Amino acid sequence: MTNFNRHPDSYHHWDLKIDGDVAHLRMNVDPEHPFKSGYELKLNSYDLGVDMELADSIQRLRFEHPNVKVVVVGSGQERAFCAGANIGMLGASTHPFKVNFCKYTNETRLSLEDASTRSNLKSICAINAACAGGGYELALACDEIHLVNDNNSAVSLPEVPLLAVLPGTGGLTRLVDKRKIRRDRADVFCTMAEGLRGKKAKQWGFVDEIWPKSKFADKVQERATELAASMPEKAKAGITLEPIEHQRDGNTYTYNHVRIDVEPEERRATLTVQGPTGDQPKNGADYEQAGSAAWAIRAFRELDDALLQLRFDHEEIGLIVLKTRGDRDALLQIEQDLQADKGHWLCNEILLLMARVLRRWDLNARSMYALVDADSNCAGAFLEMTLACDRVYALEDDAVKFAIGPLSNGTLPMSHGMTRLHNRFLSTPEQADKLASEPATYDVYDADEHGLITFLLDDLDWDDEVRIALEERVSMSPDALTGMEASLRFGGAENCDSKIFGRLSAWQNWIFTRPNATGDEGALTRYGAPESAKYDWRRT
Amino acid sequence: MTNFNRHPDSYHHWDLKIDGDVAHLRMNVDPEHPFKSGYELKLNSYDLGVDMELADSIQRLRFEHPNVKVVVVGSGQERAFCAGANIGMLGASTHPFKVNFCKYTNETRLSLEDASTRSNLKSICAINAACAGGGYELALACDEIHLVNDNNSAVSLPEVPLLAVLPGTGGLTRLVDKRKIRRDRADVFCTMAEGLRGKKAKQWGFVDEIWPKSKFADKVQERATELAASMPEKAKAGITLEPIEHQRDGNTYTYNHVRIDVEPEERRATLTVQGPTGDQPKNGADYEQAGSAAWAIRAFRELDDALLQLRFDHEEIGLIVLKTRGDRDALLQIEQDLQADKGHWLCNEILLLMARVLRRWDLNARSMYALVDADSNCAGAFLEMTLACDRVYALEDDAVKFAIGPLSNGTLPMSHGMTRLHNRFLSTPEQADKLASEPATYDVYDADEHGLITFLLDDLDWDDEVRIALEERVSMSPDALTGMEASLRFGGAENCDSKIFGRLSAWQNWIFTRPNATGDEGALTRYGAPESAKYDWRRT
């Protein structure tokens, strides 16, 4: 059972210091504290445990330290900024773990960019020494990259020449799509194990600034101060994020507002999300008062944790059945209040948290079916969760309602930037516009008419049809379903974020399974061994 | 050695009949004529040989029958429209062949859509019986899908439930991106082996029209006539496409204007393209006179053939070295003349042929390096070929020139719709605009200044640096290079076409290598056998 809770006081691998409106987040990986035993985290290389602390830092900067406007991501080690993902760990990991690890680290880096774009928290990567692979991919996720100009400090993506895999944590896509580096220069860079240093790295666009070693710390600090001064104030003090707790009883995980019932034999899990009860904050000031116990924060942090538990600890669960519960009006009221005060830093952060968790839900490599009956609370963000599902089964019953809330018109976008309603109604964008911009509650017949339901079933058919549907789904090839869902869930245009999952990660998934990388004689397996890798040279 | 030449007179699998401005292309696969022995092409299932004839038909309709405005794609068999790609063939094929086969069939279907979009040749798919998998993917590539409304005729994509692979010939992407079918309905459709019939198929958007069996032929004919009447006239008579011939002498392929020198030990091939010599047509009427011997047609058909030879018959060649030769002005003159008369149907077709062949070049799953020296003809479409390369090596010599021609500003787009100049200069679109819209010849220093060159090398370094570069490239993992190149070559936005290769095919590549599909107990291997497939249930 994986514990995703982290706290700066007990970090093993990072050091977070707040200095006015600038934060310093320094990587200093303890080689003796790997996430699993069997490898040593040398040279600031990372594994899942290291990345959990990074994800925690970013989340805490947003909620606990809204006074911080710039975070400087650096290293606490002289010899290495970061050597990337640990090769021993990758070589020893199963395919599902490797894929889940990469997806998690991608989401962490996207959360850093999300903070920059939507939450006025800028990032500067201060590269004081060698910066390779996933280390440079972390740099690419920052707003600015500063590099020491000396004979040793290089940025590099040596995965292709040394390991026969891709820099799969967004690296390739961000080179050409975010930094818009010329494709031939990107090609050269990605095939040279030694990478680029100093002037050339800057000239070709791989870093933004280079500084002599003697002035490096000062120059970075100067720039951080300058950048912070250019950013608007958010708030003096934040709220404390209390740990997420759940009880596990056999195959049931119980949180305050979320519950998972895992049925391993059936290869499915039921995810139940519960709407708010009791008094809830009405505006940003109230939320500051209430802290992380408020439903809007707690429920989505719990959901986030639950999704990660399913990903990492229940690999054979092929289908997640979504059930929404609670009071519709109470949920919609919260969304309305958050939206009304979204100029408040904390309301903004809460809305962004909800959006990120919903994107993690969209990107689940599991089938997702929503069951909507008279007990359901298919409203607002819970309706978004429902629409994110591969199918929606609804009971033909007057008590069943679908309520589009105020956040469905752009506040909770998918990875490719579209709303779930627009993504659903690609052939009728004007219908999507209308539905999204006019929050309303529909009975089940109208909801069906409007296209929100896949199968509307009457009372007589419900049990049997649902049972058969669930059984059928989990009988199919998990790989084929993953590829199919990745292709059908994201219609329309792609952007940098969605290309990371759609194009880059798809190729990486393939490469991870190929003997040239992970076979007995493959490069990832043989890394560090005296014999070099043997390749099947056929190009496909 | 694969012969890609086909001619309607000797088709085994299709019947092409021209009836005024409507053509009838009927699939009637001869089970006894598979492309390779070892399987039987039952129920109008197809293999590479069947698809070569289809590709040939589309090409001939465009060049030989410009009077045709609508092609009706049908079946010559009562019991089956098309059962899709032959499973026995897929099960028995190597991974590289499967991938190359899928890429080729994708390009064929895209050429049908290209004819519709850019060449006023519309297509109607007339589905008279069961239409499954690749059969329905062919239908999806047509402009309209008409289905017999009876109890037997269904459209289906049974790959996921029956074979544990994806409908990888554009099917998934076209469902949501081209036909804009609701993603939950697409999900249902892609997981039901039996597919959809009649009214439901139409109601959910999987077909456009349904007709009773008794009226089917008449209704389709009626619609074809009506559609043809709505299209502009192109021309009464076309030109004849003579077969493409080449001499093979050991590892050298010699065409009229193209040459390949394969060096199997070095795992590389040199592709030499030769510009025009002698008198060439000045306008559309001249081209009609000259026929397919004209350089602009012949050279690009030869290049197309050469690329396919390399793909299918030289799987271990990892690097293609591009050399351009001939007279720059003669090449630019041809482009200028074609562009000036592009309202003429044949000039239009020639330009579209050039664009398609260049896209096939972009999509090569091989590394591509251009060598530009004083003998090079780095102009116009040959400059486009150069820019499509992963790297451009140029010799520092006053005689070396780079000439941007009149076609670089949108006439020869990449799959994702961008020009190669805009794709190269994503960070400076205004520079790309300027370069693309102002054809000019640059010396090598200016070309370097403008960013057209990766490495500018002087005479002393040239031989050694080039040799080392070529050797280094072919030493790396072929899989990692394929994934890297696919990610770096296509920056910026994606569209339906590029998503077929970038998102869908990447997932399919992965799935093809997974034991759940192609292992001893995988679904593709066990298809038709008494035992059902066994799956590793871990979802990734």
Structural commentary:
The structure is a homodimer of 540-residue chains. With 540 residues, chain A is an alpha/beta fold. The first copy, chain A, has two domains: 222 residues, 2-enoyl-CoA Hydratase, Chain A, domain 1, CATH 3.90.226.10; 237 residues, 2-enoyl-CoA Hydratase, Chain A, domain 1, CATH 3.90.226.10. The first copy, chain A, is built from 22 helices and 23 strands. In chain A, strands 13-14-15-16-17-18-20-23 form an eight-stranded mixed β-sheet, sandwiched between helices. Chain A has a six-stranded mixed β-sheet with strand order 1-2-4-7-9-12, sandwiched between helices. The radius of gyration of chain A is 24 Å and the shape is globular. The two termini of chain A are 39 Å apart. Chains A and B meet through helix 3, helix 5, helix 6, helix 7 and helix 19 of A and helix 3, helix 5, helix 6, helix 7 and helix 19 of B.
